Amino acid sequence: MAASIRLSPAARSLFDEPLAIAVQGLGPRQQVTLQTSLRDETGELFQASARYQAGDDGQLDLARCPALPGGSFSGLEPMGLLWALQPQKPFWRLVKRDVQSPFLLQLEVFEGHGERPGRLLAQEQHERAFLREGVRRVPVREGRIRATLFLPPGDGPFPGIIDLYGTGGGLPEYRACLLANHGFAVLALAFYSYEDLPKGMKEFHLEYFEEAVNYMLQHTQVKGPGIGLLGHSKGGDLCVSMASFLKGITATALINASVANVGAVLRYKDITIPPLGINLKRVKVGKSGIADIVDVLNNPLEGPDQQSFIPLEKAECCFLFIVGQDDHNWKSEFFALEGSKRLQAHGKEKPEIVCYPGAGHYIEPPFFPMCAASMHLLFGKPVMWGGEPKAHCEAQIDAWQQIQAFFRKHLTGKLSGTSSKL
């Protein structure tokens, strides 16, 4: 009997869903190397491999069989061949540009455990998709808004969320559409370096974001009375500013965000919040040439930098802080704790803070491979983002559940996983 790869789901799965991998038809206790590869839309190759030994019956199920030392990971890791994918080009991060097409995953089984792969025993392809059947992708060009709205299948209305990424700019849609697959109406909002929006990060006007909030509040498919905000990195402190000054926001979830305004002047009506000061002398560059920028920002509790602290005590919403404790972009845990102190000092509800040891800055939806270092647009050189691959992967899976549960609770009044029975 020839060896074959068995996948479940067989041909296609959503990117944030687990994929069960097994090999059958091997020899008893046969040693094999499994390899996965995936090309992003620019053609860059990501690969992972792991060494295994089949059981006495010639079967190999990754959910029950630990990987042996010598590959990209070891131990019992059913999804290791996905989360351990690493770019063959240094400092390259896996992102999905066109959510309407899937990533194509190649799986191969080779004989033996050598440094060079042995004979190819079996191969299979699998599509990792981003849009669930029936989810609608609606480009939005209303007034100044440059965005994409994702609406779940069905009649609605649905709990609404605005999703903001960080200093990369452009209009990333992949997190928004994956979230829409779970029943939320999600607006992926561009705020610079996209179409006719400003090219650089000099200053941001909150009126632009207010337009987006009002667009969502007035949309017939969005369930009121308020919406949620989800922001990562620079997108996070923009969400804190939106929650602090704008009406109609009920829940704000922040992934490795700052509670001080960073990188650009923020203006709203007659209010100006300066960016937090930086000191480039605090950049540390190791032997690898990769910069560690974690200490670059000034302390927003001291001197004139206090003016950069966003007055989040004005917010009328609940907060969730997702924190990677090995974030090397900035001190996310410090910001979350200071935000919490500030809220409580003003008699506001204590925010939820979920901390993940071993997680770095780029906490993405589940099964995105960890990006340890990549080019930083503002610094113009590679910087380290932190994280330890296995712990980071586990953090992404848990954070994704935490974020959905938080929005379900505050935007629908339902607790996650519970159905209201009369």
TrEMBL record:
Gene3D superfamilies: Acyl-CoA thioester hydrolase/BAAT N-terminal domain, alpha/beta hydrolase
Pfam family, one: Bile_Hydr_Trans
Lineage top rank: taxon: Eukaryota
Entry's Gene Ontology BP terms: acyl-CoA metabolic process; fatty acid metabolic process
Molecular function (Gene Ontology), one example: fatty acyl-CoA hydrolase activity
Positions in coiled-coil regions: none
Residue ranges occupied by any Acyl-CoA thioester hydrolase/bile acid-CoA amino acid N-acetyltransferase domain in the UniProt entry: 16-142
Active-site annotation: 233, 327, 361
Keyword entries, A-Z: Fatty acid metabolism, Lipid metabolism
Domain BAAT/Acyl-CoA thioester hydrolase C-terminal: start-end pairs: 205-412
Family recorded in the similarity comment: Belongs to the C/M/P thioester hydrolase family.
The name this protein goes by in its record: ACOT1 thioesterase
Organism: Sylvietta virens (Green crombec)
